[in-house]
Structure formats: structure tokens, C-alpha cells
């Protein structure tokens, strides 16, 4: 029997200086940073701090660049690959803060592996161990952690964000945290693809931020897919660096030079994507030498769970593969940052990790695991500090009696609720526009127009009629967030009439100088898209 | 996705109920936790490694249940196999200091 549920009126009310929403690495770092600045911190996560998010089930490299003369050169080389959209100043300050926090992890006693000369190797973080370790650091810092407390909406006093409200899903009780600042560290939007960490990554933060008046950027860059054994959740490309690829009839898939592909990651995903649109594709990790096979097995044990459980030897046998859509998780879109402390432009609202746009870090190309991991280490830190500074400035101000609940779509429909519109169907309808390879990996103006029309129709139903009660509000709100993210993504992709990085317009190949800037989206129901320079002028005025 | 909670191994600690990021399990008053929302499972295998008695089994297929039985998983020694590969034991973390991933990065 499930535990008895408390009535909704019996709700939990807490007060904090800083409220962090999310349970992945950037949430943990934000909470630690704010607590170190003497803020009273509450962290509320949809899942469990330690297992939530894309990092915990993974083994991720970091973008680890030690200080020194070489650092500028490393950043410059990486910038060259970002499609002209990243900002070298942000990249430099990110590697600096991320490096400091990796050293902090080592000082705290995180069990890093050693290199042959005995030095610690701090450029890699094993997800389950790292996030379990971070949970302990968050608790040691005195943070109040609320697991299984999904947030449903932000609260505003008319001038600033003053907290958030949600539901404690394991006890059926509503919660509200009044706070002087809120950090959104809710992760990206994986459009409910069955990839590691994706159950919780439904873009909730994007919708909450946009309802509060924040902008988004880089939403068109959702064309990143990663190889996985067919039907599995293992969207980890690394082992496919040493693979061959074959069609159903056994013929090899060839690269741009006409030679059979021996490496399926990075730009070569394009050949695999083309073959997958035609029919089933099979791979074999036959380019890995025996020593490497051992390191792969021991170093990336999660990648081998699907093979071992299916009874396949991936080094000698062919197995079927797929490309998993990764939305904004390995894409770059998210909430636009307007200042160095990861503020959103909405007073009291800060953003960190994949909830934030990573366009300033990695432009039009995927940050993969490494850049995104360092970004979580750095942006979490900045957002936590920024939020605690804002909270201190507000200390002493009594909470106003007039607190507005900002949640709209999926919570408070504009028209009468309809039971025939379900969260599950909404998500399926969005998925069918934003995940198929022939619509979203390879894009055309015509295809995007059609997807845009369908998503407008889905959005109207969501906006006007989708509503849940009790715990179902979590599902309807997730569906509304996914619908909003899909609609923004397709609209931005239509607006960017060129190809750049992971935005591949087969009808418009090549970069256009007219689009060497970021696209910023503002608004939920009626939204506008502006180039980043226009947006900056607007903020200055 | 999650398919088996082994009643013979489970000690009813309800850690899986607490740590599952997708809230797949429900605790029960009279016994082992139940898989209440299997469809929400993200096939991350983390419940397995947090389980102190290797009582959980997550099959490799993420899109739906495979129907594997406890006897089949047991015969193939699959219970706790991911925890062993990582170096986690009885629900406690371990083994990250032996991670050879830096050698893979050099080869890459």
C-alpha cells in the first residue's frame, strides 16, 4: 500500500535567503557557494540530489585547463570550433572557476584516480561517485535538501522573484519556499527521449523563467544526437570512437573520403544519421585494441551494461545502434544570462548548468560532456554567489502580502480544462516534430514550417485546456514545458536561415555572415526573436 | 527499465524509493517496495548500485519491459553486476580512484 497522502491544505512552508531548484551538479555547486556566503539555503529537487540529472548516471570528462600561458591558446583553439557564437571571455572565466572547483573537490577528498607519476587526474568525474559526494558536501554546508519536491512555478512580489511553489510528490503535500533569490538549476530539455537522466530533464526551468520575463537563447541548437545501442538509454559516444558501421546488408558505411567509417563520433555522426534514415544500422567496436578494450570496460562500465545484459560481445559481434536525440541537454539552448553572476535580468532570478544557455561557452556546437560539466562547476558557483549577494541586499524587507503565482500553461489554463488533452499525448505530439532525424538532425525550411504549425496547434491546446490536479500537476507542467521548448526551438530554427554547427539546414547549407550572432527569444505565448545586439541595446536602455 | 525487485534479497530498507530520481518505486507497509511507475524509469541503473543487497535488476531495454525473470537474471549472475563493475559494494561508493578513463582520453 502507498503511504497515506496528506491533504493539499496541509502544506509545507519554508523561508530561505536562497532557494536552489534542481538536483544535478550545478544545483549542488550553487547551494554550496550560497551557503559558503552565509546564506540560508534550501535546495528543492524533482528527484533525488545525488541521482538526478544527466551527470549522475554518466562518467564525464571536464574541460580542465590549468592556469598558465597556454590557457588563452587552448580557449582560442576551442573558440574556433564554436561557429563564431561563443564568447572567449566567458570561456576563460569558466575554465578558471571550474579548475578552482576541481581543486576544491580534491581538497575535500573526492577520490580522483592517479596518473602513472602519482599525480591526481582531476579532469574526469565519475557521475555516481561525484554526485553522491556532492550531496554530502551540500548537507555538510548546512543546506536544507528537499528531495522529490518538484517545483511547479515561481512566485513574484511584482518587482522580484520571491520564491517558488510545488508539490512533495512522495507525500502528496504542496510546498512553498519564500526566498530572497532563486537559482534555476533544473537542467535542459531532453524531450522525454529515453536517455540517461532524461526523466527529470523536461525544461521546467525554461517555462518558469520565461513566465517571469526572462529570455532564452540558442534554442535552435537542438540538433545534437549521440549513438547508443538500439533501445538502450546509453547515449555515450566514446566507445564508438573505435567502431565500424554497417547497413542491414552488411555493407560498410563510408565517410566523406569514401573510406569505411572507423570513428562514429563528432562530425561523423552525420554519415550514421543519413544511414539511419534509410534503415537499420549495426556497429562493432572492432577498432579498439585489447588494452583499450580493458580500459573502456573498466573506465566506462555503464556503456557495457546493455551489451552484457543482452549477451553481446561488442568488440567482436555486430549490434544494432541508434542515434538518441538530446534536445538542449547536449544542445546549447537555455535561459539567457545577462551578467557575470548568472543573473537572468529578472530581479532575484539566477540560472546555472544546462538550464542556462551555453551558447556563450560553446556557440553552435555541442559542449559534449566536458564543456557542460565545467560549465556546471563554474556557473553553479557564480549563480550561488550572485543569488546570495542579491538576497543580502534584500534582507530586512518583509515579504509583501501580495505574492503572485506565475505559473500558467499546464497549471492554470487560459480557457476551460479538457480531460481529452493529456500530458502524455502532448509530449508524443512534440516528440514527433523535434526528435526524428529527418526533421531535426537534417532540417529544411519547409519541414520546419510544418512542424511549427503543428506545434502551434499543440501549444494552443496546452495553453487553453491542459490542467492536472494534485500530483498530476507535475505531469501537466512537464508537458507544458516540453511543448514550450519544442515550439521555441522550431521557431528559432526557422528564423536562422543558414546552417551553423548542429543547426543543419539542407536547403541552406553554409554559414551566413548575417547570422553571426545569437538569437534571443522573449515571451511565452506571444514571443519575439531578436538578434543578441538588439537585445543588449534593449537591456542598456 | 526496472523489472525485478527480488523479495528473497530485499531487506525492505526502502533506499530505492528514496534515491530513484524518477520516483518509480512505492514503499509498502507490509513488505518489499513495488515498481509503481515502471514507465517513468530512465534506465540509469543507479537504484541497483544504491541497493545494499543487490536486490534490484534493471534490464538493458529502455523502451519497455523485456519480461526477464528473477531466476534468469540470477542464473546469469546479473544481480549487482553493475555495482561490481564500478567497485561499489553494499550500496556504498567505491572504485573511482581506479578509473582508467584518462588512458582512453589519451588514446582518443
Q: In a nutshell, what does this entry contain?
A:
The complex is a heterodimer of chains A (541) and B (108). By secondary structure, chain A is an alpha+beta fold. Chain A has helices at residues 25-36, 70-79, 88-108, 127-140, 204-212, 269-278, 290-299, 301-310, 359-362, 368-394, 423-434, 437-441, 445-465, 472-495, 532-540, and strands at 12-21, 41-44, 59-61, 124-126, 144-146, 151-156, 161-168, 173-184, 215-217, 225-229, 244-247, 281-284, 319-325, 334-335, 349-351, 404-405, 519-522, 528-531.
The CATH architecture of the largest domain in chain A is 3-Layer(bba) Sandwich
Element pattern of chain B in H and E: EHEEHEHHH
What is the straight-line distance between the termini of chain B? 31 Å
Helix content of chain B: 25-40%
How many distinct beta strands of chain A?
Answer: 18
Query: Distance between the terminal alpha carbons of chain A, to the nearest Å?
Result: 59 Å
Provide the low-confidence segments of chain A as ranges.
Answer: 1-8
Most extensive interface: A-B, 65 and 48 residues
Could you say how many structural domains of chain A there are in total?
A: 2
Amino acid at each position: 500500500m502507498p503511504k497515506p497522502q496528506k491533504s493539499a491544505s496541509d502544506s509545507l512552508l519554508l523561508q530561505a535567503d536562497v532557494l536552489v531548484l534542481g538536483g544535478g551538479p550545478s544545483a549542488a555547486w550553487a547551494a554550496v557557494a550560497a551557503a559558503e556566503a552565509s546564506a540560508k539555503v534550501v535546495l528543492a529537487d524533482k528527484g533525488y540530489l545525488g541521482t538526478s540529472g544527466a551527470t549522475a548516471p554518466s562518467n564525464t570528462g571536464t574541460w580542465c585547463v590549468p592556469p598558465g600561458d597556454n590557457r588563452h591558446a587552448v580557449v582560442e583553439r576551442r573558440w574556433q570550433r564554436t561557429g563564431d557564437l561563443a564568447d572567449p571571455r566567458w570561456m576563460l572565466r569558466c575554465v578558471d572557476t571550474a579548475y578552482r572547483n576541481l581543486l576544491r573537490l580534491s581538497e575535500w577528498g573526492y577520490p580522483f584516480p592517479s596518473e602513472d607519476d602519482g599525480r591526481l587526474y582531476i579532469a574526469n568525474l565519475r557521475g555516481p561517485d561525484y554526485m553522491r559526494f556532492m550531496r554530502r558536501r551540500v548537507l555538510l554546508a548546512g543546506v536544507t535538501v528537499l528531495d522529490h519536491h518538484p517545483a511547479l512555478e515561481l512566485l513574484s512580489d511584482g518587482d522580484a522573484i520571491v520564491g517558488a511553489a510545488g508539490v512533495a510528490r512522495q507525500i502528496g503535500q504542496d510546498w512553498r519556499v519564500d526566498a530572497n533569490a532563486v537559482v534555476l538549476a533544473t537542467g535542459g530539455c531532453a524531450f522525454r527521449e529515453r536517455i540517461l537522466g532524461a526523466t527529470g530533464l523536461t525544461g521546467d526551468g525554461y517555462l518558469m523563467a520565461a513566465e517571469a520575463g526572462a529570455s532564452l537563447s540558442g534554442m535552435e541548437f537542438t540538433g545534437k544526437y549521440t549513438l547508443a545501442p538500439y533501445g538502450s538509454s546509453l547515449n555515450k559516444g566514446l566507445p564508438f570512437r573505435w567502431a565500424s558501421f554497417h547497413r542491414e546488408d552488411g555493407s560498410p558505411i563510408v565517410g566523406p573520403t569514401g573510406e569505411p567509417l572507423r570513428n562514429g563520433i563528432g562530425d561523423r555522426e552525420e554519415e550514421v544519421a543519413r544511414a539511419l534514415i534509410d534503415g537499420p544500422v549495426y556497429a562493432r567496436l572492432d577498432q579498439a585494441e585489447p588494452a583499450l578494450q580493458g580500459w573502456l570496460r573498466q573506465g566506462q562500465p555503464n556503456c557495457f551494461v546493455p551489451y552484457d545484459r543482452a549477451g553481446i560481445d561488442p568488440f567482436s559481434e555486430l549490434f544494432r545502434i541508434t542515434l538518441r536525440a538530446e534536445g538542449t541537454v547536449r544542445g546549447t539552448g537555455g535561459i539567457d544570462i545577462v551578467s557575470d553572476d548568472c543573473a537572468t535580468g529578472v530581479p532575484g532570478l539566477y540560472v546555472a548548468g544546462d538550464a542556462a544557455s551555453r551558447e556563450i561557452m560553446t556557440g553552435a556546437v555541442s559542449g559534449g560532456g566536458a564543456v557542460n560539466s565545467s560549465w556546471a562547476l563554474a556557473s553553479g558557483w557564480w549563480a550561488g554567489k550572485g543569488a546570495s549577494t542579491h538576497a543580502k541586499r534584500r534582507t530586512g524587507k518583509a515579504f509583501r502580502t501580495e505574492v503572485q503565482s506565475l505559473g500558467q500553461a499546464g497549471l492554470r489554463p487560459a480557457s476551460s480544462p479538457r480531460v481529452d488533452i493529456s500530458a502524455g499525448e502532448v509530449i508524443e505530439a512534440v516528440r514527433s516534430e523535434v526528435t526524428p532525424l529527418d526533421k531535426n538532425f537534417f532540417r529544411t525550411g519547409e519541414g520546419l514550417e510544418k512542424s511549427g504549425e503543428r506545434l502551434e496547434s499543440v501549444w494552443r491546446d496546452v495553453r487553453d485546456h491542459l490542467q492536472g490536479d494534485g500530483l498530476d500537476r507535475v505531469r501537466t507542467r512537464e508537458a507544458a514545458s516540453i511543448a514550450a521548448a519544442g515550439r521555441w526551438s522550431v521557431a528559432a530554427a526557422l528564423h536562422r536561415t543558414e546552417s551553423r554547427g548542429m543547426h543543419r539546414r539542407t536547403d541552406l547549407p553554409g554559414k551566413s555572415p548575417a547570422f553571426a550572432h545569437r538569437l534571443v527569444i522573449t515571451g511565452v505565448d506571444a514571443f519575439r526573436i531578436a538578434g543578441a545586439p538588439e537585445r543588449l541595446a534593449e537591456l542598456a536602455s | 527499465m526496472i523489472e525485478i525487485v527480488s523479495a528473497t534479497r530485499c531487506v525492505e530498507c526502502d533506499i530505492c524509493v528514496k534515491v530513484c530520481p524518477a520516483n518509480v518505486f512505492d514503499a509498502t507497509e507490509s513488505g518489499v517496495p513495488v515498481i509503481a511507475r515502471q514507465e517513468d524509469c530512465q534506465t540509469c541503473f543507479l537504484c541497483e548500485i544504491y541497493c545494499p543487497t543487490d536486490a534490484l535488476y534493471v534490464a538493458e531495454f529502455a523502451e519497455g519491459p523485456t519480461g526477464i525473470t528473477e531466476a534468469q537474471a540470477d542464473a546469469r549472475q546479473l544481480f549487482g553486476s553493475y555495482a561490481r563493475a564500478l567497485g561499489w559494494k553494499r550500496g556504498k561508493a567505491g572504485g573511482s580512484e581506479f578509473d582508467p578513463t584518462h588512458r582512453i582520453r589519451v588514446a582518443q
